[in-house]
Amino acid sequence: MTTLPARSIRLGLVQMRCAPDPDENLERTVVKVDEAAARGAQIVCLPELFRSRYFCQSEENERFALAEPIPGPSTEALGKLAAARGIVVVASLFERRAAGLYHNTAVTLGADGAIAGVYRKMHIPDDPLYYEKFYFTPGDLGFQSVETRFARVGTCVCWDQWFPEAARLTALSGAECLFYPTAIGWQFDVGGEMDAAQHDAWRTIQRAHAIANGVFVAVVNRVGSEDAIRFWGGSFVADPFGRVLASAGSDAEETLVVDCDLGEVERVRQNWPFLRDRRIDAYGDLTRRWLR
Fold first, then answer.
1. What DSSP state is assigned to residue 240?
2. What is the mean pLDDT of residues 142-156?
3. What tens digit of pLDDT does each residue of 109-134 get?
4. Per DSSP, which regions of the chain are E strands?
5. Range of the domain at 256
6. How many CB atoms within 10 Å of residue 177?
7. How many domains does the chain have?
8. How many whole angstroms separate alpha carbon 216 and alpha carbon 279?
9. 1 pLDDT exceeds 50?
């Protein structure tokens, strides 16, 4: 078999704690992204809603004040850094689209500092301490990817990571690397065995997305305790074979810088041709809620 030329890129994953002050979080984030760039990172991803503590643990109207427009202060600050460093930044933001209309939105800032892509979170949870339906309108931009200077990347957000359809459609749009900005942790004292099982399920489903679609998957979580949730960190990168290339710890801030050979996308898909063998003529019922 012909050996494909390597297309190596370096990903940066910023696992961080989030303070109550949004301005402090933005300032610290700029420093952390700059440090990742100094270590050679070319595409840097931040955790979900990094500018504040995870505010969806209760339904409070005053918390809508945390939202910002896109473009806005965060995209301006991170865009300047992206242009200065010649890097790509994936940033998850609380978007104020219009009065009374808000989204959980991930922005991809290109190496020129301009907004290269916008993704609005499609799957919105409504679970104990994750009352996101109160704050966020479901996304209306679909699943997509965007060409950057270093790779074609796709972004989904947190709860999206449990849905194989989201990963598949993003991969079908051409994504070579799928980013998941995340805010996930343990919210109940159910014991160490169940905690471990939850964490393992979270990691396993995303490794499965990498395998099923032949893409790199990069997951970036926050860390630390915020009110009733203990965020479990564990940010990681999996290759198209599902192998975990690097993983962060569970209780401290950490920035991973991970080399990825994009040639693996082609090589793995040649040997596991799942996209070739899909029976797209037989999947129409996937658009139905339930089959009897």
1. T
2. 98
3. 999 999 999 999 999 999 999 999 99
4. 8-15, 43-45, 88-98, 101-109, 115-120, 126-127, 130-131, 145-147, 152-155, 177-181, 185-186, 216-220, 223-226, 229-232, 236-238, 244-247, 254-261
5. 8-277
6. 27
7. 1
8. 24
9. no
Classify residue 3: in a domain, yes or no.
no
Block residue for tokens 């643990």: 57
pLDDT, one tens digit per residue, over 273-283 is 999 999 999 99
Q: Which residues are catalytic?
A: 48, 121, 158
* CATH number of residue 54's parent domain: 3.60.110.10
Tally of CA atoms within 13 A in the half-sphere of 169 that contains its CB: 13
- Above 70 in pLDDT, residue 85? yes
Cα–Cα distance between 247 and 249 in angstroms, integer?
7
For residue 105, give the nearest of 115, 232, 114 by alpha carbon. 115
- The answer to whether 134 and 59 are in contact (CB under 8 A) is yes
Task: For residues 160-171, give the mean pLDDT.
Answer: 98
Residue 34 in any domain: the answer is yes
List pLDDT tens digits, range 178-213.
Answer: 999 999 999 888 788 999 999 999 999 999 999 999
CA angle 111, 26, 185 (to 5 degrees): 100
Interatomic CA distance for residues 64 and 100, integer angstroms: 9
Position 292 in a domain: no
First CA to last CA distance, the chain: 46
Tell me the C-alpha distance between 200 and 237, whole Å: 15
Measured over the CA atoms of residue 60, residue 15, residue 216 and residue 193, the dihedral's sign is negative
As a whole number, the mean pLDDT across the chain is: 96
Predicted local distance difference test score (pLDDT) of residue 191? 85
Indicate whether 91 belongs to any domain. Answer: yes
Confidence of residue 4 (pLDDT cuts 50, 70, 90): very low
Please report the sign of the dihedral spanned by the C-alpha atoms of residue 218, residue 222, residue 224, residue 229: negative
Structure tokens at 217: 């998957």
